[in-house]
Write a structure and sequence with these properties.
It contains twelve helices and two strands, in the order αααααααααβαβαα. It has a two-stranded antiparallel ribbon. α4 packs across α7 and α9 crosses α12.
């Protein structure tokens, strides 16, 4: 529910022409569509790497630790827990439908999923390993070497291939066929009267200025606190941390609203514990509007209709370490 400029909208239309078109073209939110998998072997390798905690120094933290696919692709914590129980600096965004984002991380410092995938591995506050150590672990495991060679035609594992495989798996984590999607596609019984009233209020209030497109967000960076400042103790600077431009301070990537009932708590600092809280705060600081309890409940009902089919797959059986595999260091 952020305001945005007309220029930004035009720029997005130019940069992202391949976003799927809705059957209800007049609606600002489009249905989620599923793209066919281009390389099943790469996706399977990426799935194993996504769930493998041996990419971390401790041998305990995997990608799934903070982006838990049983919990809406998040960890449901205000800020994530890193190596040695370090408190993370920011709320963990969902990995579901993340391929639809214009960039990754709240501040957009990674331009795509592959670039993002390498960051946590070497971040001392997250997985606390190094790319060199993570690759040494993988290279020591014959089954990984064999699978990697089948995908990349080389038996020398490198970070580019590792992150490319993880990104390929993450690109499959889309959530189609929500009740709202079914409504967009013509099933007018898919939404209740309250959900439909909430959607109309959501549009009329201006929320779709930023929460639009297939992901209902993720398309732009917007300032948090347009009408009044957002009060927080969180030190995150937003886009300014990347651009070093003071004008970008407190501009964050607009979060997707897909599956939002599963991805609590909300905002970059995780301070909104419930959807009711989030709608209230966004209404006041972004739109200058105080929703009544009834209006808030209707918007929340609509937001819950954005929960789609969650990814389902067989959990990967990870190849075992052997005598030469570097040992985890969970307490160092």
């Amino acid at each position: 529910m952020f305001k945005y400029s007309k220029a930004a909208a035009i720029a997005l239309a130019v940069c992202f022409p391949l976003v799927s078109q809705s059957a209800s073209a007049e609606e600002p939110i489009e249905p989620i569509t599923v793209k066919p998998v281009e390389d099943a072997a790469m996706v399977e390798l990426g799935k194993k790497l996504y769930f493998d905690p041996r990419l971390s120094k401790s041998g305990f933290i995997s990608c799934n630790s903070c982006h838990n696919l049983s919990m809406g692709g998040t960890d449901n914590l205000k800020t994530s827990i890193g190596h040695n129980w370090q408190q993370g600096p920011i709320n963990s965004p969902t990995v579901l439908n993340s391929s639809l984002n214009l960039a990754q991380f709240w501040d957009g410092r990674a331009m795509n999923l592959q670039e993002q995938a390498g960051g946590p591995i070497a971040n001392p506050g997250e997985m606390a390993s190094t790319h060199a150590l993570a690759l040494k672990v993988l290279q020591s495991i014959p089954e990984y070497v064999s699978e990697y060679k089948a995908v990349f035609n080389t038996d020398k594992i490198d970070i580019d291939g590792v992150t490319k495989a993880i990104a390929a798996f993450e690109e499959t984590l889309v959530t189609p066929n929500s009740p709202f999607d079914k409504w967009l596609k013509g099933d007018k019984k898919a939404l209740t009267a309250q959900e439909l009233a909430g959607y109309e209020l959501f549009k009329d209030s201006g929320c779709t200025a930023c929460h639009n497109g297939a992901a209902a967000g993720g398309n732009t960076f917007e300032k948090m606190g347009v009408v009044e400042p957002y009060q927080t103790k969180n030190a995150a600077e937003g886009r300014a941390a990347v651009t070093k431009d003071e004008a970008d301070r407190f501009y964050f990537k607009v979060p997707t609203l897909r599956n939002v009932e599963l991805t609590y708590p909300y905002f970059h600092d995780g301070e909104a514990a419930t959807l009711t809280d989030a709608v209230d705060v966004m209404g006041r600081i972004q739109l200058g509007r105080s929703f009544t309890d009834e209006e808030n409940a209707s918007i929340v009902a609509f937001l819950k209709s954005l929960t789609g089919e969650q990814p389902t797959f067989a959990m990967p059986i990870l190849p075992p370490s052997n005598d030469s595999t570097p040992k985890p260091q969970p307490f160092d």
